[in-house]
Amino acid sequence: MEERIKNVEEQIEIKQEAVIPPEKEGRKWSPKTIVDKFGALFGLIGLSIIMTILAPTFMTVDNLMNVARQASINALLSLGMLLPIITAGIDLSVGSILALSIVMGGLVTVTWGMSPIIGLIALLVIGALAGLINGLLLTKLRLPHPFISTLGTMNVYRGLALIITGASPIFGFPLLMNYVGQESISIVPVSFILVIVVAIIMHIFLNRTATGRYIYAIGGNKEAARLSGIPVDRVLIIVYTVSGFMAALGGLVLIGRTNSASPIAGLTYELDAIAAVIIGGASFFGGVGTVIGTLIGALIIAVLRNGLNLIGTSSDLQTVVIGVVIILAVFVDVLRRKGAKK
Amino acid sequence: MLLKMKDVSKSFSGVQVLHDINLEVEEGEVHVLLGENGAGKSTIIKILTGAYTKDTGQIKWENEILEVAEPKDAIDAGIATIYQELNLIPELSVMENIFLGHEQKKRSKFSLLNRSAMKKRAKELMKRLGQNTDPDELVQNLGVGQQQLVEIAKALSLNAKLIIMDEPTSSLSGNEVEQLLQTVERLRKQGMTFIYISHRLEEIKRIGDRITILRDGTKVKTVDVNNTSIDEMITLMVGRTLNNKFPKIEFKKGNEGLRVERLKLTPESQEINFTAYAGEILGFSGLVGAGRTELMRGIFAADSIESGDIYIFGEKKKIRQPKDAIKEGIAFITEDRKEEGLFLDQPLYFNKTIAKLEQVKKNGLISVKGQKNIADKYVESLKIRPNNINLLARHLSGGNQQKVVIAKWLFTQAKVFIFDEPTRGIDVGAKVEVYNLINELVKSGACVIIVSSELPEILGMCDRIIVMHEGALTGDFNRDEVDQEIIMKAATGG
Question: Shortest CB distance from A8 goes to which of B241, B386, B428?
């Protein structure tokens, strides 16, 4: 009997070796892992090369800084959107949160004439608060999916922004409120510096804090997360609060770029943000997604828009191209996963 | 002869699970497959229904060779299967479920559905089963017993000649069981043939004609039900020596580890009291659905309980959610490691440290290096193969996945370990390694509870055995005072 068990054991060992080749440290940079890690980056580089060939003015410092500026708002929203998507959720309300937070900022500084510092705080707090409400609706009311809760608040927040302003935009922000969206340090737009700083913080948050790791755990397997003692509800509330806060930050950039706060600002921004996250390699099924991928996703969209503009393509056609890119990006991801399974 | 399996064998990853099985099923009989979990019953069924393909051997159906490459081949031949988990769409009506996939059309393939004809036929089929079910009733409005009859009606509508039933009564209440047994008897009188799998011996005695007994993937023998007593069935089923497969080590029984007092899962359920001690392995035995998993989930607060007190090493503790349970030193290794234990798309080091991340913090941030160091340590000590902590949990074998889950809980420094079906679905060699790990835990002074449906596992590894039946404790035995028959008796409420 013992003999037999031993034999079986040996067989099992051999079999496993055969099925899964032990990946040693030295093989860390195999072609497959490089594509895995930097697939989206190759997409961005390839796209940039094509744009350079088609539009000679694309690869100039001025234009690249322009791309960086144009990418900023979506990049901020995308970095926020990344969190709900990693948890296998979604936040449809970010465009509306952006609008609500900037009109609040306008109300405080322009209409009431208060200090721009207070305006700034009001703007950011409103964004975080709106996100917090999303999180509470999802976890405390036990709404079945964040698609529903944020679809609801998307309408509520937009409506509130319209009511507050009487549906007309607020103009004439004080200098400090315009700074981030308008100014550059040397040649680099301040908004892009903000994106980089936020991205670094977000990267550390997701990878090096317990809450960050819990976000991946919840997206990977919610039940296992709960049974591992992870405070699932609290983490989800944080996720949506951060997403709302990031939308408000995006709004701050928009104020500077337009020197105004319109209650209809940010319409469909949530869709661009979702696109950037997905192009960046995150999965709708949760558990997967990176900051660097998301940034690249946002840049790919910006490069596409900018390049197609330079070439002289109509904005209608741009929309078609971006749609195709989203589908292609996800399709490539599907192929890759299939390959990994074999 | 309706069905004849000749010398059918099957292995998985080099481990043979079926050895030259010969099975003959006569037309019009209820042929019972009997054996412990892992004896090979399900594998036989899956080969017959096309879920697995056999390695060697031959299947003859109505005296002609039948190749079952996919489920459709079996269905076309007239073999219908009713699984423990019913395959019905709750939101659709009885009629729609019966004809799902083979709907009747008005004229050609592309014309509209012939609803009136299907309705009439559905009514007839349910009548044949002695039921007056409205064909338009939604399946979700029916009880489990009725739903099962809808499955049988579906089999009849497919002109099945053989109906395979895999533990059909395990999820039914008393009346529903009676109804099902009557239905089987009625159909058999009409000439239907059954392959019937059940652990409930009384039931087998009542409706079975012949029994084929399996053990360790080998056929023991086929006997007539009338000439075989229940005791004989049990002996034939379990008759094997348990040495070496269970590396049991005796330790000195220590202090009280986990005490459960007056625990009620629901307002209606019975109060449960028991104590588990450090240095011992306490086994929970019982039939599927006896309430063992529910009890453990209640203790761990994975599900909420009605009332009751829990004491950990003598101290009363408030446990409202899994987080509290973990804080108090309880580890819960769930039955379904893929659904409830693992993060399949995360590397091993993530899986091992996620339940206690504060332990790997450095300057307030989580150290990936720290995580990896700890993971390395467990890979080493638990012999996890392949020994690569960057591998995704998905890519490990079942046994190694189980070790990863155990490592996760070892890292939380738990003192009370609850294992729910610790060796389900893992192979013989890996089982022994899991048992060795459990021994190590007990040696280190932990209190270990094992819930298992495999009697040999319970008898082979546990010092004390509590038996459950329908949500209540029906026996508490020391290992030296029980055998399988005594446990079986307590587990069936006898």
Answer: B428
